[in-house]
Specification:
The protein has 329 residues and is an alpha/beta fold. It has 10 helices and 13 strands. 35% of the residues lie in helices and 19% in strands.
Length: 329
């Protein structure tokens, strides 16, 4: 049994690291304990974003997404998964212990295996989407996906959607005025200049997407002002189709649950033919994050804003190799 687990772990981790993370910092590491068979998921403080994510909420979201991908890959290989959040109170960076079980030992979510092709196919798409409307039944599927992970997904009303777009623009003004925030973003972009970080992490220039002809869609622009003339300009959709992910409370366990819900939503959307991107800009500023929720909603705290629609293919962003993120002890 343990030999089979040991053989399975590298493939599971390879699927896990396909998850999205803030600025593609990939803030995770895995430790496989061969004596017990337990696979531990850790947040990596060396990949923290102290300006944009001072409480590490975004790190937990990314690690939650990686955990969900791992669960999908395990189901695809025929394993059941048992998870324990925060198994060691002495080590806050040890977020989850994962144990693989033979099928039939615990309840098995067979729908997970069906999402496996979407793990590799999912992309963050910063290109214009068409104005084609997403059918209500697809939004219903996405809302159900969030509920399965203990979170809620809401489609904002017109006024709330307008407010969210305004909040993104407000966040951009905050960002432009913060030398520390701009420096942190630049540190995680890859344009081919000397002195930048490894090509296996961060946001490469080919993933920036075109500049907006008229700025009305909440897509983060990673390009530097001096590079603006080198990038094409495009007209984006008239009204972006948004969805808001949140939970009733706001602690690290909620963040991990929200991260798993985030990834389940993205994989279901990818399977259903949608293009996706995420807007965390207003959620990175406490004074704006509280304004992102609909006051009439039961959703207490917003963790992510999704932009969904139909768009052109997007290229994959790089990932660190499994050997860099997995330690076997």
């Amino acid at each position: 049994m343990r030999d089979r687990v040991t053989e399975a772990v590298p493939a599971l981790v390879a699927a896990a690291v396909a998850a999205p993370s803030m600025h593609n910092a990939q803030p995770w590491r895995f430790v496989h304990h061969t004596d017990t068979g337990v696979l531990s998921l850790y947040g990596d403080p060396d990949r923290a974003l102290p300006v944009g994510d001072p409480e590490h909420r975004g790190m937990h979201l990314g690690c939650g997404g990686a955990l969900f991908n791992l669960r999908v890959a395990a189901a695809q290989q025929g394993w059941d998964v048992v998870t324990e959040m925060f198994p060691d109170r002495r080590d806050p960076w040890r977020l989850v212990d994962v144990t693989l079980e033979e099928p039939g030992t615990v309840p098995f979510d067979r729908g997970l295996a069906d999402l496996f092709p979407a793990v590799e196919a999912r992309r963050t798409n910063r290109s214009p989407f068409s104005d084609e409307q997403i059918p209500p039944e697809i939004f219903d599927e996405l809302c159900a996906a969030a509920l399965l992970e203990g979170a809620r997904l809401a489609v904002p009303s017109d006024w709330h959607a307008d407010d969210l777009v305004d909040l993104v623009h407000d966040a951009e003004l905050h960002e432009a005025a913060s030398d520390l925030m701009r420096a942190e973003i630049i540190a995680w972009t890859r344009t081919g200049r000397a002195g930048e970080g490894p090509e296996s992490e961060g946001v490469p220039s080919y993933a920036f997407g075109p500049r907006q002809h008229d700025v009305k869609v909440p897509v983060r622009d990673f390009g530097l002002p001096r590079d603006a003339r080198r990038r094409a300009t495009a007209t984006f959709e008239e009204r972006p189709q948004l969805a808001v992910l949140g939970t009733e409370t706001d602690d690290p366990a909620d963040w991990l649950r929200a991260g798993q819900a985030m990834e389940r939503i993205l994989l279901v959307a990818t399977r259903d033919g949608l293009a996706t991107s995420m807007m965390s800009q207003p959620l990175e500023w406490p004074e704006l994050r509280s304004m992102a929720r609909d006051p009439a909603s039961r959703m207490g705290f917003v963790h992510m804003v999704f932009r969904l629609g139909y768009g052109p293919p997007a290229a994959a962003t790089p990932r660190r190799p499994v050997t860099d993120v997995l330690t076997v002890v």
